[in-house]
Q: What sequence folds into this?
C-alpha cells in the first residue's frame, strides 16, 4: 500500500507493508497515491505472528482474545461462561469419555446379540400378528417361512434354548405342547384331507425350543432346497412323542452321531421313496400323489 492513511482498525499500514484483516476488523482504504492489492483467503490455522507487521495498540491482545471467545460462544449457541466453566463444557474428562464409549459398545453388543437372525423366534412369539393361539404355558405362531400349506410352531413361554436343555422337569410342558399341536390340527379346515406330523429338528437353526406342526403336502414356495426337504423327511426330524419318551427314560434328548449329514442325502419322495434330481421335479412328482 502507500503512505496514504490506509488502515486496519485505525492502525496505519505503511508503504510496502502487509497486514492481516481479522473477522470483525474494519479496513479503511484511500487510494490515488499508491497501488494496492487486497487478497481474500480462508486460513485454517492461526496466522504466524511474524508476518503481521502492523503496529499494535496496548490492550489489542485482550480485546481480540475476548472477542474470539465471545464469538465462539455465539456459534455453539450458549450463554457466555466463566473461563473455569469453559474447559468442562468443551473438553469432557477422558475418564467420562472412556466410560461413555465403553457403555456405548456394550449397548451395541447387546443390540447385535438380540437382533441376530437366530433369535427371531423370540421376537415373533410376542408379535400379536404372528400368534394364532396362546395360553399360560405356550404360544402358537405361523412359521414365517412355511414349508407346507399349514406349518405352525408351538413355543413355550419359558426360555429353553435347545433340545439339549430339556430334562424330566419339562415332560409335562412337552406333553402340553404336543396336545396344543393336535388341537391345531383338529381345528384345521383341511385336516380331513391332509396328513400332519409333529416333531423337532435335531439341530434347529433358530434358538428357543419349538415344536413343528406341519402338513405333509409340502406345497410351499418357501421349500427351496435339499436341506429344507431333508430336515422334515429324514431322521433329522424327531417325532414329538419320541422326544417325550426319550426324556422320560433317559432324562435327556440324545441325537445320534452323523444326524447332521442326513441333510445331504438325495431327494426322495416321502410317500413312494422314489428319488428325484431337483426340488422342482420333486414338487411335480408330489402333485401326482395328490394332497396327503
A:
Amino acid at each position: 500500500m502507500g503512505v496514504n492513511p490506509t488502515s486496519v482498525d485505525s492502525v496505519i499500514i505503511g508503504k510496502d507493508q502487509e497486514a492481516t484483516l481479522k473477522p470483525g476488523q474494519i479496513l479503511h482504504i484511500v487510494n490515488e497515491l499508491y497501488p494496492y492489492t487486497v487478497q481474500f483467503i480462508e486460513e485454517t490455522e492461526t496466522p504466524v505472528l511474524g508476518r503481521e507487521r502492523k503496529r499494535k495498540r496496548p490492550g489489542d491482545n485482550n480485546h481480540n482474545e475476548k472477542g474470539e471467545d465471545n464469538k465462539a460462544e455465539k456459534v455453539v449457541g450458549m450463554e457466555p461462561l466463566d473461563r473455569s466453566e469453559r474447559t468442562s463444557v468443551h473438553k469432557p474428562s477422558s475418564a467420562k469419555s472412556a466410560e461413555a464409549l465403553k457403555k456405548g459398545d456394550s449397548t451395541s453388543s447387546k443390540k447385535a446379540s438380540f437382533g441376530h437372525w437366530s433369535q427371531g423366534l423370540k421376537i415373533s412369539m410376542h408379535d400379536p400378528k404372528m400368534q394364532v393361539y396362546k395360553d399360560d404355558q405356550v404360544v402358537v405362531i405361523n412359521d414365517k417361512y412355511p414349508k407346507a400349506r399349514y406349518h405352525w410352531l408351538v413355543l413355550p413361554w419359558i426360555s429353553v434354548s435347545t433340545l439339549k436343555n430339556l430334562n424330566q422337569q419339562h415332560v409335562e410342558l412337552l406333553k402340553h405342547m404336543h396336545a396344543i399341536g393336535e388341537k391345531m390340527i383338529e381345528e384345521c379346515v383341511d385336516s380331513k384331507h391332509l396328513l400332519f406330523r409333529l416333531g423337532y429338528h435335531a439341530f434347529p437353526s433358530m434358538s428357543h425350543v419349538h415344536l413343528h406342526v406341519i402338513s405333509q403336502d409340502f406345497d410351499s414356495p418357501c421349500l427351496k432346497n435339499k436341506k429344507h426337504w431333508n430336515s422334515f423327511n429324514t431322521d433329522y426330524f424327531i417325532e414329538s412323542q419320541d422326544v417325550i419318551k426319550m426324556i422320560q427314560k433317559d432324562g435327556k434328548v440324545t441325537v445320534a452321531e452323523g444326524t447332521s449329514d442326513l441333510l445331504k442325502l438325495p431327494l426322495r419322495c416321502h410317500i413312494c421313496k422314489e428319488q428325484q434330481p431337483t426340488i422342482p421335479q420333486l414338487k411335480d412328482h408330489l402333485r401326482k400323489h395328490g394332497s396327503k
Remarks:
- Residues 69 and 80 are 9 Å apart (CA to CA).
- The chain is about 35% helix and 15% strand.
